[in-house]
């Protein structure tokens, strides 16, 4: 009888950090579903509005940088939010090449309606654990972006 051939010890799916981040993102999406449905927006629309609460009257390019979205991805999201009455897009009078995005009163009012509905408690993390994990994830993202921008030899 032949001896079993040893299998290489390859990492399992659960060992991949990228899968942990990806599947956590999906879980966040499911957890946010009821909140976002009540507000009538998608997650990506929601984060665009939140970014505009922080800094209204931004260029599409500046908003895209904050959200890590390309213009061709962001523009349809902004068009839909404009159709919903949450923002206005217009050319910058100082530079016609730039499109400025501004919240409407309805967009600002969403803050009162939904901003307090977060999932911090749903994470099961203590406040200090939550802040530490968020900081670690931001560091991870920054390092990966930096790595991707490095020239390859």
From TrEMBL:
<keyword id="KW-0238">DNA-binding</keyword>
<dbReference type="InterPro" id="IPR055166">
    <property type="entry name" value="Transc_reg_Sar_Rot_HTH"/>
</dbReference>
<dbReference type="InterPro" id="IPR000835">
    <property type="entry name" value="HTH_MarR-typ"/>
</dbReference>
<protein>
    <submittedName>
        <fullName>MarR family transcriptional regulator</fullName>
    </submittedName>
</protein>
<keyword id="KW-0804">Transcription</keyword>
<dbReference type="InterPro" id="IPR036390">
    <property type="entry name" value="WH_DNA-bd_sf"/>
</dbReference>
<keyword id="KW-0805">Transcription regulation</keyword>
<dbReference type="GO" id="GO:0003677">
    <property type="term" value="F:DNA binding"/>
</dbReference>
<dbReference type="Pfam" id="PF22381">
    <property type="entry name" value="Staph_reg_Sar_Rot"/>
</dbReference>
<feature type="domain" description="HTH marR-type">
    <location>
        <begin position="14"/>
        <end position="142"/>
    </location>
</feature>
<keyword id="KW-0963">Cytoplasm</keyword>
<dbReference type="InterPro" id="IPR036388">
    <property type="entry name" value="WH-like_DNA-bd_sf"/>
</dbReference>
<dbReference type="InterPro" id="IPR039422">
    <property type="entry name" value="MarR/SlyA-like"/>
</dbReference>
<dbReference type="GO" id="GO:0003700">
    <property type="term" value="F:DNA-binding transcription factor activity"/>
</dbReference>
<dbReference type="GO" id="GO:0006950">
    <property type="term" value="P:response to stress"/>
</dbReference>
<dbReference type="GO" id="GO:0005737">
    <property type="term" value="C:cytoplasm"/>
</dbReference>
């Amino acid at each position: 009888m032949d001896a079993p051939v040893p299998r290489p010890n390859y990492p399992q799916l659960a060992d991949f950090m990228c899968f942990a981040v990806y599947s956590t993102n999906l879980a966040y999406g499911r957890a946010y579903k009821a909140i976002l449905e009540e507000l009538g927006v998608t997650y990506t629309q929601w984060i665009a509005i939140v970014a505009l609460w922080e800094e209204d009257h931004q260029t599409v390019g500046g908003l895209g940088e904050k959200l890590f979205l390309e213009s061709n991805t962001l523009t349809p999201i902004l068009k839909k939010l404009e159709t919903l009455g949450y923002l206005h897009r217009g050319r910058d009078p100082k530079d016609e090449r730039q499109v400025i995005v501004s919240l409407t009163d309805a967009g600002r009012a969403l803050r009162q309606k939904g901003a307090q509905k977060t999932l911090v408690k749903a994470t099961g993390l203590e406040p200090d654990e939550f802040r530490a994990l968020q900081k670690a994830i931001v560091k991870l993202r920054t390092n990966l972006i930096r790595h991707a921008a490095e020239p390859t030899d």
